[in-house]
Amino acid sequence: MIKKLSLAALVAMGSMSFASATPLTQAIKNVDLSGMLRIRFYNEDPDGAHGYRRWRTNGIFVFKVPVAENMKFVVRNSVQTNVSVHDDAVASNGPTSNVDDNIANNLLFMAYSKDGFNAIVGKIPVATPVTSADPVTPGHGAGAIASYKVNDNFTGAAFFIDALKNGGGEGTAVDVPNLIAHNVAGAAAIFNVSAVKGQIWYFNVNNMVDSLVTVSLDAKLPIQYNVGIHVDYANGKYNSDYAKGHNISDDDAKNYYNVALNADVDAVSAKIGYTYTDKHASPVELAVDAPIGAVITTANNYNIANKKDTSSIYGKLGYAVDPKTSVYLAAQYQNAGNDSGNKNNDLAEYTIGGSYKMNKKLGFGAYYDIANWDSKSSNKDNNEFRFEAKYTF
Q: What is the 3-state secondary structure (H, E, C) of the chain?
């Protein structure tokens, strides 16, 4: 009887509350759904410490709902779960994080587009050279970004963001918190002139970073083979009051450089590059997964941009076995100079991996990464294996 009454009550409530609602078949018409389902398994074997296993699962669901001509609302929901268990029961009594996590609403914004003008307003993604580009933990905050395409050669943009999230993230950048509780404002110029494509960005983080400028250039070399060059430069300077308040004695402007050559010859692809950051403490990026700094080809230690007096020579060689299968070998040698604060904290790292694309949406990948730090370093050597299954839609 109780079940019957409950069901009747629900039906009655539904008829009253949703009498004027849009029928489901009409409501979902023209709504675009995209996203990703991903499973990652890690096996960690650190030197001088207990090994452990880690499972990381992710689901991302992005709904785009047309609401008017040239306008839509976008909603992004996601879930991420990390489960890590040590091999030695003494080291850990169980998983290091919750086995079950809740779905989080990361984004909800309005998007407008017409005649070369584009704008997003609300809780928005913040995709810039200095914010996280990780699809699972992208940089995001509340505010607005607008751009205008003048022609095929030039686009201008301006932005204002409150409370930037994932400013640091996993492997947080030096002295940059995960949540930047300041407003971030700036502008960008994106251009394509002859054989050169480039972007110039300017950022100001109120009461934290007085100025941060990035320049990225791509060009094809006029030689027989398909060879390109990529160049990055960044300059950032802390606000002096912020530096004093956080016991940062050095607030001088910091410079960061990266240059890489890449080539494709038949089934073979190759990249070799050099990146360097000077001795000052000011940041040149706001997240470890920022495109300006996440350039090194190895799997784990791929960003030195906010370190001090550190350089890396890196490379990657890939081979496409067939249209669905590829393998690669990557390596880097990272050098920490005398002004880094970590003298003799050098690193040799190697990654071997491969991927298989079963179809347009489903793919698998795996790698084995070996990181050997200098024996005088406080860092622990580590061998990591990772397997990934990813479905995009």
A: CHHHHHHHHHHHHHHHHCCCCCCHHHHCCCCEEEEEEEEEEEEEEECCCCCEEEEEEEEEEEEEEEEECCEEEEEEEEEEEEEEEECCCCCCCCCCCCCCCCCEEEEEEEEEEECCEEEEEEEEECCCCCCCCCCCCCCEEEEEEEEEEEECCEEEEEEEEEEEECCCCCCCCCCCCCEEEEEEEEEEEEEEECCEEEEEEEEEECCCEEEEEEEEEEEECCCCCEEEEEEEEEEEEECHHHHHHCCCCCCCCEEEEEEEEEEEECCEEEEEEEEEECCCCCCCCCCCCCCCCCCCCCCCCCCCCCCCCEEEEEEEEEEECCCCEEEEEEEEEEEECCCCCCCCCCEEEEEEEEEEECCCCEEEEEEEEEEEECCCCCCCCEEEEEEEEEEEC
Tell me the per-residue pLDDT of 6-24, one tens digit each, with 9 for 90 and over.
444 434 444 444 455 667 6
Beta bridge partners of residue 152, listed in sequence order: none
> Is the predicted pLDDT of residue 308 greater than 50, yes or no?
yes
- pTM for the whole thing? 0.87
Residue 282 makes CB contacts below 8 A (sequence gap 6+) with 209, 236, 237, 238, 243, 250, 251, 252, 253, 254
pLDDT at residue 49, rounded to an integer: 76
- Cβ atoms of 120 and 78 within 8 Å: the answer is no
* Contact of 285 with 171, CB cutoff 8 Å: no
Instruction: List the beta bridge partners of residue 233.
Output: 215, 257
Q: What number of other Cβ atoms are within 10 A of residue 14's Cβ?
A: 11
Identify the CA nearest to 106 among candidates 79, 76, 81: 76
Supply the pLDDT for residue 258. Answer: 98
State how far the Cα of 260 lies from the Cα of 73, in Å rounded to an integer.
39
R_g of the chain, CA atoms, integer Å: 24
Please tell me the predicted confidence (pLDDT) of residue 173: 59
CA atoms within 13 A of residue 122's CA, in its CB half-sphere: 15
**Mean pLDDT within 364-378:** 86
Residues 286-310 have a mean pLDDT of 94
